[in-house]
Amino acid sequence: MSKVVLGGGLSGLSAAYYAINKFPNQVITLLEKSDRLGGWLKSTRQDDGSIFEQSARTIRPSGEAGANTLQLLNELGLNHEIVPILKNSPAALNRMIYVNGKLHLLPNSLGSLFKKQEPFSKPLYRYFLNDVFATKKKIVDNDESLYSFVDRRFGTEIADYLISPMVCGICGGNAKEISVKFLMKSIFEKEQEYGSVTRGIIADFFNKKEKVTPVYTQLEQRANTEKWSVYSFKNGIETLPNALRKEVSSKGVKIDLNQDIQEIEVHKKSILVNKADGTVLLANHLISCIPALSLAPLLKKQHPYLSKMLSSFETASMCVVNLKYNKKLLQQEGFGFLVAPKENLPLLGVIYDSCCFPYEDSTILTAMLGGFKFNTYFNEKTTAEEVLSIVTKNLEKILNISDQPDNFKVSILNQCIPQYTVGHSKKIGLIEDYLRDNDLPLSLCGASYYGVGVNDVILSAKKAVDGL
Ligand SMILES: Cc1cc2nc3c(=O)[nH]c(=O)nc-3n(C[C@H](O)[C@H](O)[C@H](O)COP(=O)(O)OP(=O)(O)OC[C@H]3O[C@@H](n4cnc5c(N)ncnc54)[C@H](O)[C@@H]3O)c2cc1C
Q1: Quick one: pLDDT at residue 209?
Q2: Which residue ranges of the chain lie beneath pLDDT 50?
Q3: For residue 298, what pLDDT is reported?
Q4: Beta strand 2-6 with 27-31: parallel, antiparallel or unpaired?
Q5: Looking at residue 178, what DSSP letter applies?
Q6: pLDDT in tens, 159-200
Q7: Atom 21 in ligand 1: which residue has the minimum CA distance?
Q8: Ligand 1 contact, 59 CB (< 6 A)
Q9: Distance of alpha carbon 275 from its chain centroid, rounded?
């Protein structure tokens, strides 16, 4: 009996971890295309000690998926590596949006919901009252865009100034195309069931079954007591895949790098993987942890329907620019700012790394560009110098920073982030039906399917293994 994990990003390493724990006597092989593990997660220590993150940098401790990651960190012994951002720190409280040519602080306290605060034309609570009176719309196919849902329930300003920049910040996506279920599944369902979100929340409150007392792991307890908003690691987010690699190797998982798999055969009871060196690997189950678009061609000959469904998933590309200045330059401390798509800028947002994780007398920023607007501003010929120049011009315009960075890194990440457009969950349902109806020994996990964040991909790997 043996299992193959395809892909050595965070989801693949997590799948290998859960698989070797559940089946300690089986042969577990992890196949990775490149010469390193970790996928998009990459933390590069600079000569001066600062860390440049290529993609993810912070993790949320909340919710089922957040708790699952904390449990994993506990098991890996990473408790002392964690650096939290506390809920009462400026980095947690001060989140800004760039709209109408200016930076605006988003309301961050109960009191601020009752004050009119630019760019909104009325206090925020008034938009939420909208929901009480707005009529319910029956939605065809049980899905619509996030923008259209928020516009209907809370008004256009909330859709333009809050939701659209937020979607850019999370997945570089266009709120007018991304499914409401990506961020607001439960409140969308409340509206569909009770006629308004508010009525749904009230009904839920009264229908609440017996309260279950949650059992917290040691690390979750610490996160609650210390009031973490988000967290990262002393040596950067790559600490997590590095720890997983060490753990799974020590438990006997075979790690095979430089294996750009081009073909797999998925039969009812077996899997054949044609490896790059010409040999064939036989297994009784394959957990695919590679992006849907990479898996699609591998299944084309044998499962054209599945392959076609997988190839219809969308992704977006991004440019990520890390910048370090050897002095303090920011006028307002905070997590950073997001740009409202209405501004028509190539910039999606800027994270103030040196406010989140203070670093001597320096300013460290990460600018993210492109996303759903990538093809408007960039192409395969765009150079790092051009991207840097776009970033520095925008930083001068928005943050008044005219200095050139003392150190920088430009990464162009092709098709790095899945876009859960309207109809995503229906496609997932059809794929799951196909795998079940055909009794195929293939599980899917990773960012393409059940959530794009670090927590989501770890939980998707756990669920895939639990289901075996
Ligand atoms: C710019 C950016 C910022 C982000 N910020 C955050 C954040 O702050 N917080 C957060 O929670 N999440 C964030 N994320 C999301 C997070 O990084 C991802 O959820 C996570 O890294 C995805 O891991 P994965 O294993 O699913 O995919 P990947 O990292 O894509 O790994 C897939 C692996 O499969 C390999 N592979 C592909 N094809 C084959 C093949 N044919 N054969 C063998 N191997 C193959 C690839 O080489 C790769 O190593 C961010 C993502 C991006 C791009």
Answers
A1: 61
A2: none
A3: 95
A4: parallel
A5: B
A6: 999 999 999 999 999 999 999 999 999 888 888 888 888 878
A7: 40
A8: yes
A9: 30
Q: Which amino acid is at 110?
A: L
Under a CB-based contact definition with an 8 Å cutoff, are residues 409 and 423 in contact?
no
Residue closest to 377 by CA, chosen among 361, 363, 393: 393
pLDDT of residue 449: 98
The answer to whether domain 2-36+63-71+241-303+440-466 and domain 108-207 are alike in fold is no
Return the CATH superfamily for domain 108-207.
protoporphyrinogen ix oxidase, domain 3 (1.10.3110.10)
Chain-centre distance for alpha carbon 46: 25
Q: Report how far ligand 1's centroid is from the alpha carbon of 10 (Å).
A: 7
Pocket test for ligand 1, best of 55, 261, 372, 449 (most atoms within 8 A of CB): 55
In order, the DSSP letters of 92-103 are HH-EEEEETTEE
- The minimum-distance atom of ligand 1 relative to the CA of 451 is 19
pLDDT at 147: 97
424 C-alpha to center of ligand 1: Å? Answer: 19
- Return the bridge partners of 103, or none: 98
Cβ–ligand 1 distance for 134 under 6 Å, the answer: no
Cα-trace Rg, the chain = 23
Hey, how many other C-beta atoms are within 10 angstroms of the C-beta on 312? Answer: 14
Tell me how far apart the alpha carbons of residues 28 and 124 are, in angstroms, rounded to a whole number: 52
Cβ 447 under 6 angstroms from ligand 1: yes
Q: Does domain 2-36+63-71+241-303+440-466 have CATH number 3.50.50.60?
A: yes
372-376, long-range: CB within 8 Å, 24+ apart, which pairs?
372/168, 372/172, 372/173, 372/174, 372/177, 372/316, 372/419, 373/341, 373/346, 373/348, 374/172, 374/316, 374/317, 374/318, 374/319, 376/346
Nearest ligand 1 atom to alpha carbon 417: 53
Q: Is 286 in the pocket of ligand 1 (CB under 6 A)?
A: no
Mutation to probe ligand 1, out of 4, 17, 31, 33 (largest number of atoms < 8 A from CB) = 33
Euclidean distance between the first and the last CA atom of the chain, given in angstroms as a whole number: 13
Question: Beta partners for 59?
Answer: 231
CA angle 385, 387, 388 (to 5 degrees): 65
User: pLDDT tens digit string along 395-408?
Assistant: 999 999 999 999 99
Predicted local distance difference test score (pLDDT) of residue 212: 62
237 CB near ligand 1 (under 6 Å): no
List the domain boundaries for the chain. 2-36+63-71+241-303+440-466, 108-207
16 lines ligand 1 (CB under 6 A): no
pLDDT of residue 187: 87
